[in-house]
Amino acid sequence: MKSRIAVLDGFRALAILSVMFFHYFSRWTPPLNSISIYPYKNSYNFFQYGYLGVQFFFIISGFVIFFTLERTHYLVAFWKKRVIRLVPSIVCASIITFIIFRFFDKSFLFPNSHFTKNFFPSIIILDYNLPGKISGLEAAKQILTKYPNAPIIIVTAFETVRNEISNDEFFNNKNLILLLKPIKLHLLEFTIKSLLSK
């Protein structure tokens, strides 16, 4: 059996390119940014919907992960492969990005990218429906009991979860925000920024 599906690799390449072009030509120019920081201004702003490549990539990844799970005999082996495949590239990309911003962003166009704290987890995102016996809210309680100031985002499709949070005094004055599916990318970005600014 072939280990890779060629057409999905092609789709992933398209998703990656659309996101790259979005950041190179559309992300940091009006209307998404107050001013254009590109040397070419907004002359090539043809990729304002390129961010949708992220959702497209996640759809493909969801299928591929299921495909991989089906062919893996042990769950531990699956996670081991995931860690070996993803963590080294994440660490390398983070280090390279940090070095570039720290030493070449002299005008501080991206001031929040200059801090070493970016290497550590800063926000927890939980789905309300978790595998196993506990819900996302119960998991959030366990986390907040140990780390009271931890910022947490709960994601769900059920409006009733909002009442569940408001009726539980434990969550009063906690950095917990509920987002209802389907989630708009700009809303998720705004929520993350607001939590990080506290």
Summarize the entry for a quick read.
By secondary structure, this protein is mainly alpha-helical. The chain is built from six helices and three strands.
Polypeptide structure, described:
It is a single chain. This protein has 6 helices and 3 strands. It is mainly alpha-helical and 198 residues long. The chain has 3 domains: 1-71; 72-118; 121-198, 3-Layer(aba) Sandwich (Rossmann fold). It has a 3-stranded parallel β-sheet, sandwiched between helices. Helix 4 links the parallel strand 1 (124-127) and strand 2. Helix 1 runs antiparallel to helix 2. It starts with 5 loop residues before the first helix and ends with a helix. The mean pLDDT is 86.
Task: Please render the helix and strand layout as text.
Elements: H1 6-25, H2 52-71, H3 75-104, E1 124-127, H4 136-146, E2 152-156, H5 160-166, E3 176-180, H6 185-196
What structural category do the secondary elements indicate?
mainly alpha
Q: Please state the second-level CATH architecture of the largest domain.
A: 3-Layer(aba) Sandwich
Strand content: 5-15%
In which range does the helix fraction lie?
40-55%
The domain count comes to 3
Order of helices and strands: HHHEHEHEH
Radius of gyration: 20 Å
- DSSP helical segment count: 6
Mean pLDDT: 86
CATH topology assignment of the largest domain: Rossmann fold
> How many strands, what sense, and barrel or not for the largest sheet?
3 strands, parallel
- CATH superfamily heading of the largest domain: Response regulator
CATH C-level category of the largest domain: Alpha Beta
- Could you give the distance between the termini? 51 Å
The strand count comes to 3
Poorly predicted tracts of residues: none
